[in-house]
Design a protein that fits this description.
Elements (H helix, E strand, L loop, with lengths): L5 E10 L2 E10 L4 E6 L9 H12 L2 E6 L4 H10 L6 H16 L9 E6 L1 H10 L7 E5 L17 E6 L3 H11 L6 E6 L11 H18 L3
């Protein structure tokens, strides 16, 4: 059954001298909170991530979609395209957002999950390597290989979702899985390409992510 009401508000997340913008939605009696790490060249307004977030909210999970770069940084990155691949910078900001979430009274005791897309999945896994940081990770068309040396340190159960026609990314995910020591699963969505634009593909991603977070966050109160 869907939660009766949801509270939505803008988030202002401090990180050093910077402030990162986000959109927070908290259902009544939320059972967990999922932070979204968007892919290269994207933002908290990612249509695909917002679709998945909406489904998670209906399952009773709070969601935080945030910009991993400031507006000034995004303008620079549109020209140089280098910040979007600075995985450790993005991971540090995801950690800051996690600390911010845990400082909010309504979410201080909720288990935390990460949903990473494309390069954001690499950042999510680097952040998840911090001890006791996160209870579950889902990657959509992600680049877990970009997490590099952090992969063996990840302890959170991790679901890797890749489109069946995204051949190169399937190979990268399989290689990354060999370095991971946590519970992990690779699920391939038949016929889907990297952006899951095919009919029903994104719906399947949302279903898989919802099932994973409901199961894994429920075991990590």
């Amino acid at each position: 059954m869907a939660p009766s009401t949801m509270t939505a508000r803008e988030a202002r997340i401090p990180h050093g001298r910077l402030t990162l913008d986000g959109d927070l939605v908290v259902p009544d009696h939320a059972s967990g909170v999922v932070l979204f790490a968007h892919g290269s060249g994207s933002s908290r307004f990612s249509r695909r991530n917002r679709y998945v977030a909406g489904d998670l909210q209906e399952l009773g999970l709070a969601t935080l979609l945030m910009d991993l770069l400031t507006a000034d940084e995004e303008r620079i990155d549109q020209v140089t395209a280098h910040l979007r691949f600075d995985i450790h910078l993005l991971a540090d900001r995801l950690v800051a957002a996690t600390d911010w979430v845990r400082a909010q009274p309504e979410m201080s005791n909720l288990p935390v999950g990460y949903f990473g897309a494309s390069t954001g999945a690499g950042a999510a896994l680097v952040a998840a390597a911090r001890p006791e940081m996160v209870a579950a990770v889902v990657s959509r068309g992600g680049r877990p290989d970009l997490a590099g040396d952090a992969l063996p340190a990840v302890r959170a159960p991790t679901l890797l979702i890749v489109g069946g026609r995204d051949v190169q990314v399937i190979a990268l995910n399989r290689t990354a899985m060999q370095q991971m020591r946590c519970e992990k699963q690779l699920t391939i969505v038949p016929g889907a390409t990297h952006l899951f634009e095919e009919p029903g593909a994104l719906e399947e991603v949302a279903r898989l992510a919802g099932d994973w977070f409901q199961q894994k966050l429920a075991t990590n109160p």
